[in-house]
From TrEMBL:
Keywords: Lyase, Pyridoxal phosphate
Similarity section: Belongs to the trans-sulfuration enzymes family.
Cofactor (UniProt): pyridoxal 5'-phosphate
The enzyme's E.C. designation: 4.4.1.1
Protein name: Cystathionine gamma-lyase
Highest rank taxon of the organism: Bacteria
Keyword Ribonucleoprotein: no
Residues making up the signal peptide according to the UniProt record: none
GO molecular function: lyase activity
Entry-linked InterPro entries: Cys/Met-Metab_PyrdxlP-dep_enz, PyrdxlP-dep_Trfase, PyrdxlP-dep_Trfase_major, PyrdxlP-dep_Trfase_small
Acetylation among keywords: no
Amino acid sequence: MSTLGDSTRCVHAGVPALSPGDPLQPGPVFAAPYALPPDGYEPGVDGYGRGDNPTRRVLEAAIADLEGGDTLAFPSGQAAVSAVLMTVLRPGDTVMLPADGYYNVRTFASSFLTSSGISVVEAPTAGPYPSFDGVRLVLLESPANPSLDVVDIAEVSAAAHAAGTLVAVDNTAATPLGQRPLDLGADISVASGTKALSGHSDLLLGYVSTRSAALYEAMASWRTLGGAIPSPFDAWLARRSLSTLDLRLRQQTANARALATFLREHPAVTGVRWPGLPTDPSYAVATRQMRRIPGIIGFTLPSAAAVADFLRASTLVTAATSFGGLHTTADRREQWGDRTAPGFVRLSCGIEDTDDLLADFTSALSA
Ligand SMILES: *Cc1c(COP(=O)(O)O)cnc(C)c1O
């Protein structure tokens, strides 16, 4: 890994060297077909937008630098996760999914994998993990969304590899500045770039990173043949947003630390999860494994109505799903079918000033 600091890497990652007269921030290249040489297609010359786009390559080079593996960008996190599942799994295989992770992945599995003869088993992120014997692929999610449990990726990867099981890690919540799953032994890091990675709540994106040439080729071919490519404009916005990733995460984590500490003491709050709290069940493994703790908190109010009252009284917290953006948002997860209490809120800390958020929470929770 480069010895440069996180912000330096985020500003420069993937960006080609400039020549005099070049714009510091080159614009996106929009293209369906490109002009071909008169003798016909030549490998290395861009031919058609589904396979080739220079703006997408810049974003992929940037994420590759941060994740430490060859990277393919997808138009959403779900497109990236499904690329992993559809290229690795064959009828008769078994896949192990997180029981407490992103619900859409389980729904994809029950909708499209089981009917193709693939068996799906679930394991809680915090363990215990059942035997990996006969399991083709285990997908880990750490920290898991929304449980915020953390798994020791190196330990589980070693156990899975001993059984011949491939390991993919959903790195959405952590981002590559929080942890690098490939360094911890995973075969694939897969993530939604819709959340903190791009962080401005204005695009959907996903990616996969791997050091395996075979897995990379399989997923690249899946993408070109399946057609799930991000637009050049979204790829450009995402690379542009990456420059401030370290700054945004720093403020989100600082806000999460202050709000989690505040919520833990508040009489109206019946439970708080934030892996950066020393009292959190995931604290030990999170602080050992991760370089920074994300700005996502889970907290519980007595009922769904209490959450609605809190949201009505707050002036700074917006009800919204997704997380990792500039604005502080709250999402009552049960409404989406998550296996959580009716009053459970996933709070995504934005980059607002900490004191303003604390004052807003103080008055909104007393209302
Ligand atoms: C949001 C999310 C996804 C899916 O990403 P989209 O960009 O919404 O398709 C996958 N995994 C996790 C952990 C997520 O939070």
